[in-house]
Amino acid sequence: MSRRDALRLLGGWGAAAVAATAASPALAATGGGATAPAAAGAGTAQPFVLAPLGYAADALEPHFDRLTMEIHHGRHHRAYVDNANRALQSHPELRALSAEALMANLATVPESIRMAVRNNVGGHLNHALFWRLLTPGGAKAPSADFAAALVEAFGSVDAFKTRFTEAALGRFGSGWAWLAAKNGKLAVISTPNQDTPGMEGYAAIIGLDVWEHAYYLKFQNRRGDYAKTFWSVLNWDVAAAEWRAARS
Ligand code: MN
After folding, report:
1. If you measure from the C-alpha of residue 68 to the centroid of ligand 1, how many angstroms do you get, rounded to a whole number?
2. N or C end of the chain, less CB within 10 A?
3. Band of pLDDT at residue 17, cut at 50, 70 and 90
4. 206 in helix, strand or coil?
């Protein structure tokens, strides 16, 4: 595949265009009481902002390649941010809600923008965590306390990795595999499209993007190789911090 073909292919998967025009009822149902689990330091207040990666686009080579990182962050994630802000700009009554609160209370978002919010605010939230979960250096294994929690929940760290990989491979089409926590219990789940664990009351701890745009340039159809490579760039320190935040 040429670079140009690849760019065209990836560019074709932009987030859905949105049109936020209809007047909407006030968001009375949430009353500011939304209780979605907050991602540590995610900065998910409106208007949403595309944060820098925090490392060079080629820093994850040879595991995750530079071009995929550039397109994935600079085009796909940027499109989610721009489309989310566009959908919400004519809804000042929603302005105070964080990305987490919007996703946890989608039923109260006006129907005219609900799908745009679901796809694009979800896409923003999922990717904001994903970039933080990747690192060129850092711990290559979970800290003792986090490892103990994984052993308790799954039998062993390797058993957790197997379950997580099964979730990544088992997700038909586009979506995410997750290690998530609810009521203090760890679980491996997966979500379609840009749905978030928070929509089901889970706190996201580790997420792997299994949309083809996340791996096709380097791995083509070999999602399993991509999922295996993820362990070489996963920032276990950030994952452990997310786990501790989910418990508190
Ligand atoms: Mn993605």
Report:
1. 10
2. C
3. very low
4. strand
Q: How far is the CA of 152 from the centre of ligand 1 (A)?
A: 31
DSSP labels for 43-103? --PSSP-----SS-TTTTTTTS-HHHHHHIIIIIIHHHHHHHHHHHTT-GGGTT--HHHHH
pLDDT value, residue 43? 60
Domains within the chain, CATH numbers bracketed: 144-247 (3.55.40.20)
Residues around the ion ligand 1 (C-beta < 5 A) = 209, 211, 214
Distance 140 CA to ligand 1 centre (A): 23
How far does the centroid of ligand 1 lie from the alpha carbon of residue 213, in Å?
6
Q: What is the pLDDT of residues 198-223, one digit of tens each?
A: 999 999 999 999 999 999 999 999 99
For 180-199, write each residue's pLDDT tens digit: 999 999 999 999 999 999 99
Distance of CA 155 from the midpoint of ligand 1 (Å) = 30
SS3 40: coil
Average pLDDT along the chain = 86
59 Cα: distance to centroid of ligand 1 (angstroms): 18
- Ligand 1: centre distance to CA 211 (Å): 6
